[in-house]
Write a structure and sequence with these properties.
The complex is a heterodimer of chains A (113) and B (115). In chain A, β5 (42-50) and β6 form a beta hairpin. With 113 residues, chain A is an all-beta fold. Chain A has strands spanning 5-7, 10-13, 19-24, 31-38, 42-50, 53-57, 64-68, 74-78, 87-94, 103-104, 108-112. In chain A, strands 2, 4, 5, 6, 9, 10 and 11 form a seven-stranded mixed β-sheet that branches. Chain A has a four-stranded antiparallel β-sheet with strand order 1-3-8-7, with no helix packed on it. Chain B is 0% helix and 52% strand. With 115 residues, chain B is mostly beta strands. Chain B is globular, with a radius of gyration of 14 Å. Classes of the chains: A mainly beta (113), B mainly beta (115).
């Protein structure tokens, strides 16, 4: 158990809908990273938050957004969903800037029908 | 730009034998970290081992060791005494000191342990 929690574990929704994925980092970790794993794109970095502020963006679509709350949990919002958004979404947490180790949550498997 | 290359889409190993999974990387950063993660069929990403670019000794964690050759930019994972439970996807990843420290992943190697 990495200490990172993600909910829900599975999500099935229709095209055009909006969903929210939730992540709670390990105790003491200030950084949260979101990653997407899909068959065609592999594992790719979406966005990072550090202590409530956006730190870096990767290949995140404009239809996607995220935030980190004062209690350090984070939410990833996916809107106007398309079939191609079906993927496994991971949250990872780390102690903070300048350190490398990241611990992954169990992931949320999103299926868009 | 950072890049991780795993050239072995699939590997087979006999139970109790050792196996090496290849990983090469490319970065212009001097300070970086190299990781291996295991992803079983259940989907979770399990951290296995970490090597810092300035670490002179190869990292070891139980049956896992990382064969770090900096000049060749390679970071191969060696699994000794393979077990059936080692069957999974294995991802090599890199994080650089500059920037967000996010992980760049390779395409993975599917390891199958044969009884």
């Amino acid at each position: 158990d990495s200490g990172v929690t993600q909910t829900p574990k599975h999500l099935i929704t229709a095209t055009g809908q909006r969903v929210t994925l939730r992540c709670s980092p390990r105790s003491g970790d200030l950084s949260v990273y979101w990653y997407q794993q899909s068959l065609d794109q592999g594992l790719q970095f979406l966005i990072q938050y550090y202590n409530g502020e956006e730190r870096a963006k990767g290949n995140i679509l404009e239809r996607f957004s995220a935030q980190q709350f004062p209690d350090l949990h984070s939410e990833l919002n996916l809107s106007s969903l398309e079939l191609g958004d079906s993927a496994l979404y991971f949250c990872a947490s780390g102690e903070g800037q300048g350190t490398y180790e990241q611990y992954f949550g169990p992931g949320t498997r999103l299926t868009v029908t | 730009a950072q890049k991780i290359t795993q050239t072995q889409p699939g590997m087979f190993v006999q139970e109790k034998e050792a196996v090496t999974l290849d990983c090469t990387y490319d970065t212009s950063d001097q300070s970086y970290g190299l990781f291996w993660y295991k992803q079983p069929s259940s989907g979770e990403m399990i951290f296995l081992i970490y090597q810092g670019s300035y670490d002179e000794q190869n990292a070891t964690e139980g049956r896992y060791s990382l064969n770090f050759q900096k000049a060749r930019k390679s970071a191969n994972l060696v699994i000794s005494a393979s077990q059936l439970g080692d069957s999974a996807m294995y991802f090599c990843a890199m994080s650089c000191r500059t920037g967000a420290n996010n992980l760049f992943f390779g395409t993975g190697t599917r390891l199958t342990v044969i009884p």
